[in-house]
Amino acid sequence: MPVTPDALNLATIHLLPKLTDLFLDGHPFLSKVIEGGGIERRLSGGEYAAFTVVVDGPGNIKKLVTGSEAYAYGRRSITKQARVYIPTHIYSFAVEGQALRHASGETGIANLLKLYPEKGMSDFKQKSVGQCLTGNGSTYDIDGLATLNGTTTYNPDGSALAGILDFAAKASQTDTVFNLPKEGAAGGTTGWYNQYGDVASFATNGKRKMREVYGACEVRSGEEGPPTLGLTDATSYNNYYESLDDQVRYGKEGAKGEAGDTQTTKSGIMFHQMELFEDVAISDNLASFSGITTNGIMYMMNPKTWGILTLGADASHETKGFFEVRGPFKLEGRDAWGWEIVCSWQIYCMMLKANGCLSGTALL
């Protein structure tokens, strides 16, 4: 008996938890951010969402010499209100009537699930992560998601916004990120900047620069600890790998989604407490890093300082956040039915100075 659109839709709805896990757990960037900072759902306030960043300590210091000095319990302004726009993206696909008629029974439904919603979610994930890491999403109309790439912009609400991590020294970081000017700007926000190092060549000072940026992130993160996630291009990954003695090369299993869908092509290699992954999206889109291109890049991230905001409460009007499936819809003038995967989410960072980036890591 042929598979009906309603039967496929019911199976897709039952599959949704697995599809969500495929999206969230199939890449170390998403899985570690969720593990570190979690997902927060905003049920009111619209697409613009405020969050708090802590840029300094809450008190002042007074040196005592005689013991009779007076000191005040001053209240310092240590928090700032940052803001993001939570965009909604819809991944739509069509299932041809011919495919439904040729499928039969449980096996037919299983094959259609693999071919359409599972492959669709995998494609959605890869394009989303590619935008977050490189800022290449305008090709796929998914450039509403914030990008780590500070050499480019993203466009969540019709206005171009600067990428998050600058490939520049602190004094030269002048962009506005999450509605707060960085420390290097006139009237900038003290403590709102990221760490940065430029490698002359990996053989010359590659690991030294990695240690410098890693150490700067760790010292300035306070109780949040060191960066634990590194993401880089293939050449930079291999430069670091080959710089290690055979006896000290070790790592963990690479992050994988469904069979055949491996976003990170190699296992992570440990650098102190940070697991470094080669990322396909970075390797394939180095041209998105203006002024760096083939020189290579590396991110050092502290997932505890990142999080994900979602928006929505009612799937009949918008979305419940992470993910809703809509359909089937009979497509006018076609022997086909349409489905939509709807998601509203945005990444954010509460402490930029606990994170860093390097350039020049691909130069041997």
Characterise this structure.
The structure is a single chain. A hairpin with a 6-residue loop joins strand 5 (153-154) and strand 6. It contains seven helices and 18 strands. The strands form five sheets. The chain has a seven-stranded mixed beta sheet with strand order 9-18-14-10-13-12-11, with helices on both faces. Strands 1, 4, 15, 16 and 17 form a five-stranded mixed beta sheet that branches. It has 364 residues and is of the alpha+beta class.
In short:
It is built from 7 helices and 18 strands.
Defining traits:
single chain; 364 residues; alpha+beta; seven-stranded mixed beta sheet; five-stranded mixed beta sheet; 18 strands
